[in-house]
Specification:
- The complex is a heterotrimer of chains A (260), B (270) and C (149).
- Chain A is mainly α and 260 residues long.
- Chain A contains nine helices and no strands.
- The longest helix of chain A is centred in the middle third of the chain and has 39 residues.
- The radius of gyration of chain A is 21 Å and the shape is elongated.
- Chain C starts with a helix and ends with a helix.
- Classes of the chains: A mainly alpha (260), B alpha/beta (270), C alpha/beta (149).
- Chains A and C meet through helix 2, helix 6, helix 7 and helix 8 of A and helix 1 of C.
Chain lengths: 260, 270, 149
């Protein structure tokens, strides 16, 4: 019994320690003022691998999710004879929830795991140490551009996801199921508010982008530099990012839309 | 001694995850010479290099490099000091996303504002020095192990450092590549006047090029001196290491309980 | 992949994001670029505002002419005071018009409809509607019907 309490306490302590380490790590990454001349090309390179290369999966998923929403929404709403509200339903679901959340989950799987594995491998092959010995801080040189790239790319991807999803919903709802195009857009415009819905969705995705990128680079930087260590760090990145995104989504939704 | 020594360690104690790796190590590394630090695997030779480079902090004791106390340096001063150090890692540690040319150019691009054509010339000179000028467009994944180390060597001398540290440069090399590295290390030392620290457990190669050697075991320096002095060193432990005897003061067996217990033969088998 | 090409693709990526944001702003949320257009505010007191919300629609003959600014309770009369901002180009609402809360469709959103009066004078900024008609409360309607009143 005492053993069980002790091990419970120990794992609690370890959690606190790892959160503290992650925080100190973050402070180390963000403390340096980036020099535009050297920082910008590095950032562009990371934006390419984190953002542009994630575009395909985001666009395809967005299209399918929009189409599914169109189909499901039509069957449910037509029971009430209000299938014209399909545009409103699709737009609100995507812009408020599915856009930021699904993009963040895809991002964690596609870009986050790659970031962790890349940094972990750089650690295992002593590239990070060798940077340090060259008098270059790896936190600023390697980690910071990746963190910023995730932070910038996520909202862009989420916005594109929502747009493609709304377009996919229109393909199904208007072109296939025969909802009038005018009422599709009209209902949407009447109910979606730019600041309440779109901007809040973008804020969500900024938060998710930051958290996902932070978890990914921290797990890579902190991993045990062996093949088993890197693979477990990659798994942790995906699991922790997904949990963090879903948990934070609830909190943010409650704060943004919960004032009934 | 202190005038001639470039690096000196005083009573350095360092432990990691509860295990004491160094227990009062004191040594001086002379300026402009090749010093070999040798010892059995797992005695923390690489750790010693990291302590000198300031990547790790000793628990107590002092490490001075060129008159500056490394553990007391502030971040900025430490990074400035490291610009004068080159380190050749065991794996080479080339940046896998950059070509050979860019790898060698990297320290110059970060630390200097040299114009592009000058960087180009210096890189080619450094690559020429290691005999790999023709390989400049290759990616690190296309290089053999020996070539990787030579490129890494070219990179670590790119900024003309005062000190270069070699971490196990000979491990896992074929005899020709090893011969090339031995020649390069001693050439670089004599032509550039570098202080070289060589960590290795390849006794013959190390003793053949070093001016001075130090043997570490069990967290302590057990023998130090010129190669000739070490050959006639009175300590049994030093002799066992140099001759490579399987058993001696450094035991063959990892510390364990009495064998009879492990095999279940403890007195009075029921 | 040279630095140049990756710069170009990243630039295109950011532009695509900007274009998508513009799409969400204009086409999806119907934000009009001329939002700095002049409006004026008029008030109406309702006994029951039902389900109207700030930023809801104010229309005349089915055409949107403004939006609801705020809804407050007047603690003296215990009526709800609704402020509406009306587009500046609709400056001739007859002064005896009535503000009516209606529902679009059977279950749709509630909005304020302005039924036009006949007077020659127009409502000015800061004026209050003379007559209003509160939200239709289906529950009350049904209970009235059941008790035969």
């Amino acid at each position: 019994m005492i053993d069980r309490i002790a091990s419970f306490g120990r794992s609690g302590l370890e959690l606190v320690v790892s959160i503290g380490r992650a925080g100190r790590f973050l402070a180390g990454v963000l403390s340096g003022v980036p020099r535009p001349a050297t920082g910008f090309p590095l950032l562009v390179k990371q934006l390419y691998s984190v953002g542009v290369l994630s575009l395909a999966i985001v666009v395809v998923s967005g299209l399918f999710i929009g189409m599914v929403l169109g189909l499901q929404g039509y069957t449910i709403l037509s029971d009430f004879g209000s299938e014209a509200a399909i545009g409103q339903m699709i737009a609100l679901t995507l812009v408020r929830e599915l856009g930021p959340v699904v993009t963040a989950l895809l991002f964690a799987g596609r870009a986050g795991s790659a970031l962790t594995a890349e940094i972990g491998l750089m650690k295992a092959t002593e590239q990070l140490s060798s940077l340090e010995m060259m008098g270059v801080d790896p936190l600023r040189r390697v980690i910071a551009p990746r963190l910023w790239a995730g932070f910038i790319a996520m909202p862009v991807l989420a916005i594109i996801f929502s747009m493609v999803g709304i377009w996919g919903g229109m393909l199904v709802g208007v072109d296939w199921l025969g909802v009038f195009e005018g009422s599709y857009w009209g209902n949407m415009q009447a109910s979606v508010d730019f600041f309440d819905d779109v901007v809040n969705g973008v804020i969500k995705s900024i938060v998710f982008g930051f958290v996902c990128a932070w978890i990914a680079v921290y797990q890579g930087y902190d991993c045990v530099p062996t093949s088993a260590g890197i693979s477990s760090a990659t798994t942790k990145t995906v699991v922790y990012s997904s949990l963090a995104v879903l948990g934070l989504d609830f909190v943010l939704t409650a704060v943004m839309f919960g004032n009934f | 001694m202190s005038l001639r020594s470039y690096i000196s360690l005083k009573d350095v104690v360092f432990s990691r995850t509860g295990r004491r790796i160094f227990d009062g190590v004191t040594m001086d590394i002379p300026r402009g010479k090749i010093t070999a630090i040798m010892g059995p695997s797992g005695t923390g030779k690489t750790t010693l290099l990291r302590l000198i480079g300031g990547q790790l902090q000793p628990d107590s004791g002092d490490i001075t490099v060129n008159g500056q106390s490394v553990p007391k340096l502030r971040r900025k001063e430490l990074y400035a000091l490291r610009e004068k150090m080159g380190m050749l890692f065991q794996s080479g540690a080339l940046f896998t996303d950059l070509s050979v040319f860019e790898n060698v150019a990297f320290p110059m691009r970060v630390h200097t504002k040299l114009p592009e054509d000058m960087i180009h010339d210096i890189v080619l000179m450094k690559l020429e020095a290691v005999g790999l000028r023709g390989a400049r467009q290759l990616m690190p994944s296309e290089l053999s192990g020996g070539m990787t180390r030579r490129v890494a060597l070219a990179r670590s001398i790119a900024l003309d450092p005062e000190l270069i540290m070699y971490d196990e440069p000979f491990t896992g090399q074929d005899p020709i590549a090893m011969g090339v590295l031995v020649k390069l290390i001693s050439d670089l030392n004599s032509s550039m006047g570098l202080t070289s620290v060589l960590v290795s457990h390849d006794v013959q190669e190390s003793l053949s090029i070093c001016h001075y050697a130090c043997i570490i075991a069990d967290g302590k320096v057990i023998g130090a001196g010129t190669p000739a002095e070490l050959q006639v060193h009175p300590s049994e432990q030093v002799q066992q290491f140099l001759q490579g005897h399987p058993d001696g003061p450094v035991p063959f067996h990892y510390p364990s309980s009495v064998a009879t217990e492990d095999f279940g033969l403890a007195g009075g088998v029921s | 992949m040279t630095q140049r090409t990756s710069e170009i693709t990243v630039g295109l990526f950011m532009l695509a994001g900007l274009a998508a944001l513009l799409f969400l702003a204009l086409q999806v949320s119907g934000l009009t670029p001329k939002s700095a257009e002049s409006t004026y505010t008029v008030y109406a007191d309702f006994n029951d505002t039902g389900g109207i919300t700030p930023r809801g629609r104010v229309s005349m003959a089915g055409v949107t002419i403004g939006s609801i600014e705020s809804i407050n309770l007047n603690t003296e009369t215990f009526q709800a005071r609704v402020a509406m901002s009306i587009h500046g180009d609709v400056d001739n609402i007859p002064a005896d018009s009535a503000a009516v809360i209606r529902t679009s469709g059977l279950l749709g959103e509630q909005y304020i409809d302005i039924s036009i009066g006949g007077e020659m004078d127009s409502l000015e900024a800061g004026d209050t509607f003379y007559s209003t008609q509160s939200a239709m409360n289906i529950e009350r309607l049904i209970s009235n019907f059941a008790s035969g009143k």
